[in-house]
Amino acid sequence: MPGARGEVRLKPVGELLHLIRLHTDSIRACLDDGQYDLLLTALHDLARAYDDGAAAARAERSVESALLPLPQDHPASPSSPPDAPCPLFPHAGPAGLAWLLLAELVADRATAPCPAGIIVAVKRRLLAAPSLSAAEARDRCAEEPLPRELIRLADPVRGDRYPAFQFAGETGGPVSVVRSVNQLLLAEVDPWGAADWWLSGNTWLGGPPASLLGALPDDVLAGAARALVKGEE
Question: At CA 37, angle to CA 29 and CA 126, rounded to 5?
Fold first, then answer.
């Protein structure tokens, strides 16, 4: 089952960072532009996490997810057999390693976007997902004002957008488990991060959580979000 967490033993994030550095060229060849942008974004988030355990855990999962499109036999694939440990810098933590690696990957601006460009690309991807306008979201809710835990993304062209996965079917209201998970992810404070969790690949669940609504039990989805926030394995 996709949500079973004992099926695949993933490499530690430090080993993944080392392997990314060793196999940069082949990774770039295996990933399309959007997938490579996601990898750079995850590295950027990890580099900025420092001592924030929840943010670091989220970024580490994002690095793993960004590498999932690699062939399973690729050395940097999260599920390929582990290599012998060979740390880049034995005394550097994941955040420090991510900064060093990111600096190398974005050194050639002709092939890799700057961090600001990465963020723009991620926001563009999230805004391209099906969504409702503020007026449409109000029509779906039986309460006013709109629930604060709903993800609200600011679109400079269309105004506020509410990702459609938060609502049941064509006409239904907010999905209970989505509201609960959004509270865990602090969607009111970090709507882009919450939307990215729902709409990006998830190592533990086997796909984007939004695509698994109704397919996996609600407590499995909530448990994955809770583990992320608490920085659990």
Answer: 135
